[in-house]
Design brief:
Largest sheet: 6 strands, parallel
CATH topology: Rossmann fold
Helix content: 40-55%
Distance between the termini: 26 Å
Strand order of the largest sheet: 1-6-5-2-3-4
CATH superfamily: HAD superfamily/HAD-like
Mean pLDDT: 91
Number of strands: 6
Shape: globular
CATH class: Alpha Beta
Number of helices: 6
CATH architecture: 3-Layer(aba) Sandwich
Length: about 170
């Protein structure tokens, strides 16, 4: 698949992604990054809006799977508690975890999207796997390394918006 650092869609937050947006594109599997996409790195408590959004996605028939690089139990524990499939140690941007998720759901890449907060892992991984890449704003940039990474991503976000491949 093509190497691209440009997201196919950009949303302010994960909960702005709607079932209609996904279904209009033939997507029925939404892979989700966990840290700083669903919950801040520094918290284990989900926002009520996230829980409402997850329920709405499930009711709409969109299948959900967290695909996380994390080796900690935080993502897996959250997924167990909320009945969501989970692939940890995914090694994004390599396709390892994404391919495991697609195989688990017997889904073709073009039927799937990956939503995450990082260009260099989530967007690149989704694009290389042939899935739709959805970039969301990080929940909280709590240290200098996250702030520097986010600054390095800004040119790609600018070009993605300029090419009008985004959804407000």
């Amino acid at each position: 698949m093509p190497f691209s650092l440009l997201p196919k869609a950009i949303f302010y937050r994960l909960t702005d992604v709607t079932p209609a947006f996904l279904q209009d594109r033939g997507i029925d599997l939404l892979m989700l990054d966990f840290d700083n996409t669903m919950l801040p790195y520094t918290s284990r408590v989900p926002a009520p809006e996230l829980l409402t959004w997850l329920d709405g996605m499930k009711r709409s028939g969109i299948r959900l799977c967290v695909v996380s690089n994390s080796k900690k139990d935080k993502a897996a524990g959250f997924c167990r508690a909320h009945n969501i499939s989970c692939v940890t140690h995914s090694k994004k941007p390599t396709g390892k975890g994404i391919r495991r998720c697609l195989a688990q759901f017997d889904a073709a890449p073009e039927q799937a999207a990956l939503a995450g907060d990082q260009i260099f892992t989530d967007v690149l991984g989704a694009n290389c796997a042939g899935a739709v890449s959805i970039l969301v704003k990080p929940i909280h940039l709590h240290n200098i390394w996250l702030k520097l990474r986010h600054a390095a991503e800004q040119p790609f976000i600018y070009f993605a918006r300029k090419r009008r491949i985004t959804k407000p």
